[in-house]
Amino acid sequence: MAAATSLARRVRWRWLEIAFWLLAFGAIFLPAGRHLILNQIAILALFALSLDLILGYAGIVSLGHAAFFGLGAYVAGLAAKAMTGAPLAGLGLAMLAAAVLGFATSFLVLRGSDLTRLMVTLGVASVLHELANALRDLTGGADGLQGVVMGPVLGLFPFDLYGRTAYAYSVTILFALMLVARAVVHSPFGLSLMAIRRNRLRASALGVPVNRRLVAAYTLAAAFAGAAGALLAQTTAFVSLEFFDFNRSADVLLVLIIGGAGWLYGGIVGAILFQGLQDGLSALTPEYWQFWIGLFLVAFVMIGRERMMVGVRGLWMQARR
């Protein structure tokens, strides 16, 4: 009874969450000009959410999460070219393909230590990268998959040059998948994942089917990453080998480091800060923005998120006096 009450309390919506989503959907009505960057943030946040499911909750480290992102992007792009331009159909196919790949590779990830998992996940992404490069007739190889033409969302809302429809589409999918993730992590299944992350042997001794739980979490996270890749392919109408790059996997890991792993909004907060920082610095200093981002990350890690938040809170309180 107490456990059920605790779960019910955890799943209850907080006013801050409601305000956040109201702001996110309200941004659809902003004047044209900012929706392209907002769309990038929504997609990056979904990608980070998928990584958080396996890293923050299940404790599975990965350096090749871009494998599912890239596969989802290519499946959505190919579906638009060969089958249908309906965005939701392409999105569903992309999630299905990424989930199948996640399920198939999850058994490799279960073996060995964290270092082994890093190498295995990196290797899977590299294999898919080379495969996409070799299948030039299908994927376009190094030139990328071109000629992707998307139809209107739900047959009613065509994509526009300013990115308003793209952002509305992406933030809606992000919200829908956040609801799924929220239900999962606040369920007994999610609690068992956290128990596995903290102490796998003890969880196993308590009767938790560790491997089955990890396979399920990895498959679900792969589907989420495939959805993020599909959204980027559909809203930009282009897919390239860069979708499988190590940099993309590293970036989403940095997003989680900035926002915090193990809580659902860490990926969203990290995506907003990371993309905002990247956009702002590249506008201020186009040649050296990577230097400043690197410097920020070094300072961030050395000082620590909690200390920085305390400092920001102190400055905020002083400014209010």
Please describe the topology of this protein.
Elements lengths: L1 H10 L3 H12 L8 H23 L8 H17 L4 H23 L4 H21 L1 H4 L24 H22 L2 H11 L1 H6 L4 H27 L9 H14 L6 H19 L4 H15 L1 H16 L1
Task: Please describe what this structure looks like.
The chain has 321 residues and is an all-alpha fold. It has 15 helices and no strands. Helix 5 packs antiparallel against helix 11 (210-236). The longest helix is centred in the C-terminal third of the chain and has 27 residues, at 210-236. The mean pLDDT is 86.
Task: Indicate the overall shape.
Answer: globular
- What's the alpha carbon Rg, rounded to whole Å? 20 Å
Number of helices: 15
Quote the distance from N terminus to C terminus. Answer: 46 Å
Mean pLDDT score: 86
- The residue fraction in helices comes out at over 70%
Largest sheet, strands/sense/barrel: none
Low-confidence stretches: none
Structural class of the helix and strand makeup?
mainly alpha
How much of the sequence lies in strands comes to: under 5%
The secondary-structure element order is HHHHHHHHHHHHHHH
Give the quaternary arrangement of the chains.
Answer: single chain
By DSSP, the count of extended strands is: 0
